[in-house]
Structure prediction request, 888 residues.
Amino acid sequence: MRAQIPQRQKRTVRSDTVLPVFCGAALLLLTFSASMRAQTKAADVPRLVQQLNDKDPAVRGAAGTALDNLKDPAAEPALIAGLKQSSGNASALKVLVRTLGRFNDAKSVAAIAEILPGEAGHVAAAQLLQMDPLGVQAAADATASEDENALAAVRDSFIDAPEVGLKVLPSALKNSKSAAQRAVIVALLADCAIQNPWYGDPPRPAFTKGILPAASDADAGVRVAVAAAIQKLAETEKMDDPGMGHPDFGMKDALPVLKTLAGDQDADVRTAAMDALGSMANADAVAILKKHLNDPDATVKQHATEALSAAAAAAPAPEAAANAEPTGKPEAKRAGAPKSAEARELAQIKKWDDETAIPKLIPLLQDPSSLVRAAVADKLGKLDYRATAMNGADHEQNLSEVPALIEMLKDSHALVRAAAAEALGAIGDESAAAPLIGLLKDPKPKVVVAVAEALSTMVRGAGYAPDVLSPEDHQAAGSALVGLLVNSDQEVRHGAVNALVDVGTVDDMKSVVPLLGDHDVFVQNRAAEALEHAFYVNPNVERNSKLDALEQAAGAGLTAMLIIQETRVAAIGALFAMKKPPAEAARTLMEILKYNVWIIVDGTSRQEIQGLFNGFQGMQIEQGIDVLARTGNREATPLLLKFLNIINPGAGKHACAGLAKLGDPRAIGPLLDVLQTKGVGLQPDAAEALGAFQDPRIVPALIQSLQSDNYSLRAAAASALSHFHDARVARALIHSLADENADVRYSAAEALGNLGDESAVEPLGKVAKTNYQAVRALGKLNSPGSAAALASVAQDRQTQVTTRIEAVMALAKLKDPGVVPALIQTMEQEVAADPSSTVAVQCVQVLGKIKDRRAVEPLRKLLGKPTMPSQEAERVLREMGVLPTAQN
Prediction:
């Protein structure tokens, strides 16, 4: 249960206590900045360990950075002592383990192994696996531990690095004197194999081979573990990936072992063997199971019976005849009756299952049997489906069948026309769009429905498949589908409104709005979904100005749909997608959301307030809160405040954001209460929300939050502070540039850029090589000092390429005469080091946008080479109106 929000008098934070603490920590940080430039010495370690446990996250971050520069082997004893000193601090232990791991000797391995049972056990285990061979062996030895935390840590680490497990665990299994450890290792080897069952390096059967020798173990518990491991592997082998088939664990080698275990003198071992054989479910396993149906032990007998039943259920059913004859022909029912030519062709079509069959299938589209023609069309759609992976990497299409399938749209049989339409939709070739749109006039409802679905498929595809309809196709198809909305056939109406969700244009949606009041609930819901699709804003496309009028037209209908339980989900989805939800929806939403205010009283959850309607479910609660806030009705503030203290944290997060949108000053006090109540999960959300208000209590509270143990709160507080032009803010954010958490450092840098305080230029420049947000901030600040700092980042080849490209892009935003020379120098240095440098390409492109004549000659020097910088230089010079002249 969430803690009660403290009384308002506890909200105030005295700036005269916050700022001295901050300034004192800043002095420590300045001390660190000098030491960080030099290599850390062994003598520094005790002090750094102490500061890893400091309350200030920036001090902890600076200490961690200093330890990353530690390479003095004399520091090892102090680091080991630091592990013991920091036993209750997981973040400090993580830094110390990482630092100690670089020494990779017996002492460091032993010290790290000692903390496996603690909170940092997973970090310790992962580090040990990087310390080959002593650390790896120590992790393997830890499988004998009786401590559950230590076992979980080494287990997870071996599963994450199965190749390391295969290297050491089989020998540990062979040499172990502990039956419990041997059982643990058997299970762990199976888990390592299952982690990525299709991966071939190392081969998955190798894990099985590592397990099987333990089947002859003297301890029955180990033998049971072997049978259980085989069962787990056999169950995993049943998985089927469309592109990779079934995983292979080499279960054929396990069958003789299971046969032996099935005859074991121990009943528990035999029982486990029965379960494993049932999972294998092949003929050999079934034969073994049948022999044990009369086992003297009742439990074994029961498990054998159940395993046989499971194996029988998993066995594939015999294939039915490809084309059973109608019941009115008794001669066809006689055993041994010869198949007709049609049946043989249908059976053959069913067998063909890859693209090589396409040339054989196309001629069969002329077969006299309509069943054969329809089956061929269906098969062609399945074989030559549209690729779903990026760049079509998963499937190369043939498309030779498309003209023949388009011709089949004119077939005399409706079944064939519908099958051809569905196939063309799956294939997704643009040449089929116009013929399909024309077929929407077909007299047969089933054909029209199939065509509508095919057009939808061509638009939405799957995975990375793009929309293949042209704007003209969308207009023509949408117009035809709108005409079908008044069709007398219900299936046609359903198919038309279904397709309009994907195919319709904004203009078509005007005809969809009246359907919000249709008597058919299906039509209402699909109409709302079509409008949701239209309202959804693609950030990469300019918003259609007609959507404002469409939103106004649909508002009343969608609000009315909120009242009906069966249409509420579709209605809130459409309202959520709107840029400006209708104001009239506010009261209905408040009545619905009242139901969702649940609290815990005396250990029992109950509603706090009564509403007129049942509430929303799942994500619709969050959507409802968001829509309510965007109606702008401040009467919703008291209701949203109640969501800050209920048992639904997702609703609470959206309530915080909603209160920020409403901007009602009544929310400031409760949001400060949440911010200052430790352990409340909404603290970061409250911090972000407070950034939308202006109140003298907020800045000190947010600065205090920068010292929180919760890094998410620190990051949110840093972001929120960017909205306050207060002298204290920049100093606090500069201090957080050294925070131990990367997200906080990024947020602080971004906030400084948004704040626009030029005093941040120098501190941002110092961290820019490891903080891409600092690079962006320097570009936003556009200060005289920004150019030099950004040029330093761009020209540092030890810095990540993505960060250096960010620096080049930021330079382009500066109005500084030194930008062009800096870009030219960076470009020339890059080309000299790497003629195909992507950083050089970015410099060329930026110089092309600036169009400064000083860049002409340096760009000409790049010409005449088979590299991207050379090609870009030629393009840029032409755009600048300069005749390129290659320099040899």
